[in-house]
Specification:
Elements lengths: L3 E6 L13 H7 E5 L8 H14 L4 E6 L1 H12 L4 E7 L19 H13 L1 H11 L3 H6 L2 H8 L7 H13 L12 E7 L7 H9 L5 E6 L6 H4 L1 H12 L6
Parallel strand pairs: 1-2, 1-3, 3-4, 4-5, 5-6
Length: 248
């Protein structure tokens, strides 16, 4: 029997190596297709990269988007309504920055993102180390050396300055809130209770506007990378959602 296709979209500055904790389990049940951000030098490049990958694939598929990848997954699930069967959003958001005009406060101030753009240029190592630490909750950081483990697993120099800046530009501009009501795919939303990158309120906002199509699961004590700190529970949620897990 042919495995279901699961396209995985990583977050800002990351590549497929970040999925290492869950790849062995998920690959047993799915044909995994990893989207990479290498070589992207404009915010439009992110959308084009995802569209190109989906159009290269044949038939139905599922999408898993984490953080920045969740914005792109929502966009793709709306564009390819007839092909995306399942949508999984991890520490997701439909708009990364706040919007005072509409009262949307589930994100960062734009000034903070712009400051990060400058910081990456001035001292990349310091900025990225601070970012890696912020991926985990205070509770997680007390229990294990997660930052060191993450840095050992990922290629910390994979992203060029152009790619990092393009990603931050995308986060500044992207707003897919208007797509939420038109997504047809059944959706699983997984969010860390103590996420400081994308607050859990961003996922609550998404779930409320998907008109019963979304199931929201809050991971207790988790930060922005629940698939890293709680990989077993994370994998079980996905397997059960897509119909490959134990439903007992």
């Amino acid at each position: 029997m042919e495995k279901q296709k699961l396209v995985m979209l990583p977050g800002w500055s990351m590549d497929s190596s970040v999925w290492k904790p869950v790849t062995p389990v998920l690959s047993e049940c799915f044909q995994l297709d990893f989207c990479e951000w290498h070589g992207i030098n404009s915010m439009e490049g992110y959308t084009k990269r995802v569209w190109k990958l989906i159009e290269k694939e044949k038939g139905k598929l599922s999408l898993l988007g984490w953080s920045l990848g969740s914005l792109l997954a929502i966009d793709a699930a709306c564009k390819y309504k007839d092909r995306v069967e399942k949508l999984i959003l991890v520490s997701g958001t439909s708009r990364f920055t706040r919007d005072k005009e509409t009262g949307y406060l589930c994100g960062w101030p734009k000034s903070t993102v712009k400051k990060m753009k400058k910081s990456v240029r001035v001292d990349r190592e310091k900025t990225m180390n601070s970012f890696y630490s912020s991926l985990f909750s205070s509770k997680e950081l007390k229990s294990k050396e997660y930052v060191a483990l993450l840095k050992a697993d990922i290629n910390t120099n994979a992203a060029s300055f152009m790619e990092l800046e393009a990603g931050l530009d995308y986060l500044l501009a992207a707003d897919v809130r208007e797509h939420l009501g038109s997504i047809r795919a059944d959706t699983l939303i997984i969010h860390g209770e103590m996420d400081t990158i994308c607050p859990k309120e961003a996922s609550l906002y998404i779930a409320q506007r998907m008109k019963g199509k979304a199931v929201l699961h809050i991971m207790e004590g988790a930060g922005h990378v629940s698939f890293y700190s709680s990989s077993d529970d994370f994998s079980k949620l996905i397997l059960k959602f897509i119909g490959q897990g134990d439903n007992k």
